Amino acid sequence: MKKDLPVLWEFMLVAMILMPSASAVCPLGGCGSSGNDAWLQSAQEFLSSDVPLAGLSQAGSVQTGSFQAGEPVGTAVKTTGSETVPKVATDFVEPKSRTGLFPAGELLAPLESFSSRDVIVDVSNQRSEGEGHIKGAIGVPAKSFLLDDGSLRPVSDLAAILGAAGISQEDAVIVYSDSFSSGEATFVLWLLRYLGQDDVKALDGGLEDWIKASLPLETKKNVRSPANYSPSKGSELLASYDFVKSGAAQMVDARTFQDFGNARILKAYFINPEQVLESGKLKDAASLTDTFAKLDQKKPVEVYSNDYFSASLVWYALQLMGFDSRLYTWEDWQAHGEAKVYEIK
């Protein structure tokens, strides 16, 4: 019996350490599963008031993929015989369609919905040598369409990049990136629509869900014959300063929570990419309905941010829900001397 006492004491000591404390700290907003949500809602209501937060940085960062720098269009890429698959969560995803669940679901490409006529474009900004991609996909990094300062290239340059990649305006295009939440695919979808591309979709869940569904990959470089891309620019998808200043549209700020509190276009709603995403893909229609509850579907919506990728995620979610959404940039607003909180009259 005495020999067993040290073992018994050790067991009791471990149990005491692991026992939850009665004075455990609750999250802001209270205990329970809704505590964090309540705090976020209260904070958003405060930031939506006329009182800006002081001393917060306006700097934003552009989120890209999880791979090393990729190659621009027309650059030789080495290939390997072995297939390398990016590391993702191992939860299996069933490749079922969600297109019928959204008012404008035709902009969403379900897994395993490709046809031989589709031009599949991997727009990941970063890609390691030998990384697996969807079979038949060509690579056109999303950053190819932007200048070094993050602004959009001239339309003539955009058309040249697409033509060199073998994409024409008549093609049915499906875009994807290694991570849907990066905004790379939604940005390129917006860009193609802006240039007048009628048939373009974004892959639901991106390459992450493709891999989780155990769908095929390849590592060889695919090349299409050059094409003549003739854009018919849809200027309404990129808002002008004058249109924003007129107050004809509702404004959505897709920057960080801190940037929104520091300086914004007054009357803008704070809806950032995290509020339209769940588990790395777009939320379902019911959840998006709640997210956009304060917006009037009869009026256009302008989404602005520090970068096109973040803004395009919110723009795309609005499009799927049937809103007349467009993009704008915070940089353009600042360039017109409107760097502080400003009320649209």
Protein architecture, described:
This protein has 345 residues and is an alpha/beta fold. The protein folds into two domains: 99-233, Rhodanese-like domain (Oxidized Rhodanese, domain 1); 236-343, Rhodanese-like domain (Oxidized Rhodanese, domain 1, 3-Layer(aba) Sandwich). It contains ten helices and 15 strands. It has helices at 5-18, 35-47, 155-164, 184-194, 206-212, 241-246, 257-262, 285-291, 308-320, 330-335; strands at residues 108-109, 118-122, 133-134, 138-139, 172-176, 200-203, 217-218, 250-253, 265-266, 269-270, 277-278, 281-282, 301-305, 325-329, 342-343. The strands form five sheets. Strands 1-6-5-2-4 form a five-stranded parallel beta sheet, covered by helices on one side. A four-stranded parallel beta sheet has the order 10-8-13-14. A two-stranded antiparallel ribbon has the order 3-7. Helix 4 (184-194) links the parallel strand 5 and strand 6 (200-203). Helix 4 crosses helix 9.
Number of domains: 2
Derived from helix and strand composition plus strand pairing, the structural class reads: alpha/beta
- CATH domain class name of the largest domain: Alpha Beta
> What pattern of helices and strands is seen along the backbone?
HHEEEEHEHEHEHEHEEEEHEHEHE
Give the fraction of residues assigned to helices. 25-40%
Please give the largest β-sheet. 5 strands, parallel
**Unreliable runs:** 5-9, 13-40, 46-83
| CATH fold-level topology of the largest domain | Oxidized Rhodanese, domain 1
Rg measurement, Å: 24 Å
Shape-level CATH architecture of the largest domain? 3-Layer(aba) Sandwich
First-residue to last-residue Cα separation = 85 Å
Task: Kindly report the average pLDDT value.
Answer: 79
As laid out across the biggest beta sheet, the strand order is 1-6-5-2-4
